[in-house]
Write a structure and sequence with these properties.
- Chains A, B: This is TRAP-type mannitol/chloroaromatic compound transport system substrate-binding protein.
- Chains A, B: InterPro entries: DctP_fam, SBP_TakP-like, TakP/all3028, TAT_signal, TRAP_DctP_sf.
- Chains A, B: It holds the Pfam family DctP.
- The structure is a homodimer of 347-residue chains.
- Chain A is an alpha/beta fold.
- Helices cover 49% and strands 15% of the residues of chain A.
- In chain A, strand 1, helix 2 and strand 2 form a beta-alpha-beta unit.
- The longest helix of chain A is centred in the C-terminal third of the chain and has 35 residues.
- Chain A is globular and about 60 Å long.
- At the A-B interface, helix 1, helix 2, helix 5, helix 11 and helix 12 of A face helix 1, helix 2, helix 5, helix 11 and helix 12 of B.
């Protein structure tokens, strides 16, 4: 069957630009945007082309959202929590300390009302969000010396951003904002004492093991952070329906792809880092508990003065209670038994 | 820009039929096929229509793959392990006892070579597979009496299928093949002693709690089972590239959607089942260990006589070792600390 003329009008040739918050060297998190753009092209017979630009090619990485808000570019690939300076509600779309793990985050966003609630909020910035990547739970970062107690955190200069930094401030940490490329020399000179980045695969590229070998886990401030594709709302609304569908489906596929790539690469990188001398250690329960209590204070204070934050936070927290109960049954015991077998070198 | 005439030819009107292995009442696992078909339609401006049929509308649920192999229908939505009677290799595409959890399964399929290896195998049945749903780790099923030791499994008549049944046979279980609708009366009469189905949300619908209240976890034979969309290879190869891309992306989105829906519904259903009198209990470490040893025997025997199985199994096992190591760090400790907070009713 040949298509009627109306069809041709529904498949216009469109070229967009996407600005990423990441450098090309981070092939998984930056690569997620390229995977996304390739799928959109494939889904539209090459008619809808989205060209991906690395951080600083058009705007600096942390201005990606602004560039979409003000229509400098049609879309970006970034992490919502980078923009907590505008409003802490941005954090919830990505990850908040002691929030959801990756599966729970996806469940809440796609089927628990999270995407709708965040889009109501994002609309105030002229953007619509699509989950478009996830790193899995991150590591807690690299420290120049051992951190055993909450007292060891006092005065610690740590490269840690946004909402997590606010929480850590309550424990005496002095948060530092430092771009990725400047972290290594700062750690080497001792200008800072610690730095969190992502996880084994990305962290290995920056060489931290040589200057700050204590590698703590988990990164309790991001148990399953979402990377978003943000689209300028007016530009999105002007698209033909099939192109809107292409953005939505390609973003969902990229969400799965990025996590899968991290889950393949991180185990190998962790093994290599261990061989290079990384001392891989868990945060103590004392530190985790104090951090949780500090986070609860921050949530209480923020909810009291910011109704937008409270609305989305309350939805996430209601789901978290149920999800953390269920997680202990089928999935949790399966994982724990497999860990037990792994420790016995049976798998 | 108006499209050139060539475009019209690349967007033909196509109508396909998809046969599901599931009844409409299972709105999540059956619903995954409807979610998929809707996205394919949206992505192609309504030109590529896939009509979804429930089990038994065209062919019985367990003949879905055959109907695609022999081109009765263009595609199906089913679980690969239903077809282990043809070849045990089918099991690996979905889930094998003590195999991968959901995240690991996706990582291995999409980025660890799993999809390619399985497609080489599926090609022998004239089909190509696309991951198109996941239930998360399943529950271990409903038992009429408590099962504390391996001795309690001896002679137990249990509704459990395929490869898992083969493994359980080594522990003295007598596997029974019973269709979903016939399980309840068999449990009620005592014709069988136990039955595994899916998880809280689906299990609740069949009312098992009234006749077999001991609800064990985890379903160690499916830590993260994939539901597949299978497409007849000749039919797939004849599609325009954008329609192939639509199938691939829509399936990946449905994979995420189904898990998200289960992750929203299962916690609520577990709480309701508990209120209805379900005695929710973990399998003992003795039972899990004996089952693991039995599974290892089956894998050894199967690998020795089936090179197709061995090739795919070896790939999965190589990844499992690394993944189960990494899983214990960032994600595992994050989840365990959240469980600890949940047990203290702090989240």
């Amino acid at each position: 069957t040949l298509a009627a003329p109306a069809i041709a009008q529904s498949a216009p040739e469109i070229k967009w630009r996407l600005t990423s918050s990441f450098p090309k060297s981070l092939d998984t998190i930056y690569g997620g945007a390229e995977f996304f753009a390739k799928r959109v092209s494939d889904l539209t017979d090459g008619k809808f082309q989205i060209q991906v630009f690395a951080a600083n090619e058009i705007v600096p990485g942390l201005q990606a959202l602004d560039a979409v808000s003000n229509d400098t570019v049609e879309m970006c690939h970034t992490v919502s929590y980078y923009y907590v300076g505008k409003d802490p509600t941005f954090a919830i779309g990505a990850s908040i300390p002691f929030g959801l793990n990756t599966r729970q985050q996806n469940a809440w966003l796609y089927m628990g009302g999270g995407n709708q609630l965040m889009d109501e909020f994002y609309a105030g910035y002229n953007v619509q969000g699509f989950p478009c990547g996830n790193t899995g739970a991150q590591m807690g970062g690299w420290f120049r010396k051992e951190i055993k107690t909450v007292a060891d955190l006092k005065g610690l200069k740590m490269r840690i951003g946004g909402f997590a930094g606010t929480v850590m401030t309550k424990l005496g940490v002095v948060p530092q904002q430092i771009a990725g490329g400047d972290i290594y020399p700062a750690l080497e000179k001792g200008t800072i004492d610690a730095a969190e980045w992502v996880g084994p695969y990305d962290d290995e590229k920056l060489g931290f093991v040589k200057v700050a070998p204590y590698y703590y886990y988990p990164g309790f401030w991001e148990g399953g952070p979402t990377v978003h594709a943000f689209v300028n709302i007016d530009k999105f609304n002007a698209l033909p329906p099939a192109y809107k569908a292409a953005i939505e489906s390609a973003a969902a596929y990229a969400n799965t792809w990025m996590l899968a790539k991290y889950d393949i690469e991180n185990p190998k990188a962790l093994i290599r880092l261990h061989a290079q001398g990384a001392k891989v250690l868990p945060f103590s329960v004392e530190i985790l508990t104090a951090s949780f209590n500090a986070a609860e204070e921050v949530y209480k204070e923020t909810s009291a003065k910011n109704p937008k934050f409270k609305k989305v936070y309350d939805s996430l927290v209601a789901y978290r209670g149920e999800a953390d109960l269920w997680q202990q049954y089928a999935d949790g015991t399966f994982d724990r038994f497999m860990s037990y077998l792994q420790q016995q070198k049976k798998v």
